[in-house]
Amino acid sequence: MDLKTLCEMNGASGDEKAVRNALLEAAKPLCDSVKIDKMGNVIAYKKGTAGKGHVLFSAHMDEIGFIILDATEDGLLMFRPIGGVDPRVAVSKYVVVGEKKVKGVIGALAIHLQSPEDRQRVLGYEGLYIDIGAKDKEDALRDCPPGTFVYYDNDYQEFGDGCAVAKALDDRVGCYNLLRLLQGTYPCDITCAFVTQEEVGLRGAYGAAFGTDADTVIVLEGTTAGDMGDVDKVKRVCEPGLGVAVSFMDGASIAHVELYREMLALADEKGIAYQIKRGATGGNDAGAYQRRKEGKRTCVLSVPCRYIHGPSSVIKLSDVEAQYQLAKAFAETR
Fold this sequence. Notes:
By secondary structure, this protein is an alpha+beta fold. Helix content is 25%, strand content 27%. An eight-stranded mixed sheet has the order 1-2-12-3-13-16-14-15. Strands 5-4-9-6-7-8 form a six-stranded antiparallel sheet. The protein is globular.
């Protein structure tokens, strides 16, 4: 399954069914066993050739999105975000609503009609609506009732100097590379966990942590690039094109020190492009794996992503390859 196919699927936290089913079918011929657990995670297990331990590789299948609350009397849909979505990014973007993929656009009061005070602040979601061209409230809610999921309506495209743009690169890049890992053979047992609901609190990974006896977890993620505009070099947390970003710490976890150093040494030995993520913000599923059962050694390998959690995130495909190569090298050297 290619990255384009994965990114163009819709699967916000709590609505991962389409992505889950596709990953399940893609994983089946590549592993010894695969199952869906009670949290909706896809857990794919592949036995090693030499019985040298057990490593879990994890990536989250969910993406950010929106959900319908209600509609106004004149037919505009009221909604809220699923996950961290800056309302400034959402205004005027095309969306699809529900399983019928009703076309819509996120709108706000035109600037001509805003008060001077309005222009000095960021409009919150209470000031944004989704316009699907409905004639009234009843018409709007017929196909888009409360609880309906909403997605950005964007295609995957490759452009420029080895770049790709899409709506769900976080974290379909990780899912893509997990499937690639399952195609290989390794001395250790590996489990590839495609987990749910990362964007709303690492919920799927908390469940997955109980379903494996692996003591080492490598999380494959997408992370915020900090190289846009006039950002000082020292403040650029990571940059597309410099390789996979290896984290020593973030807001949810601290990497196992020996594992972190081993990963950097392995990248140097194999000539794999990498960078150290120079920041300790945000969080990812490593935090869940560290905190459940007896705990796990964790390290996070991320693809730097510009405009993350927006409709048009941008990556360098060379970083996706570097993430895969480092994860693969780690499994091959257990």
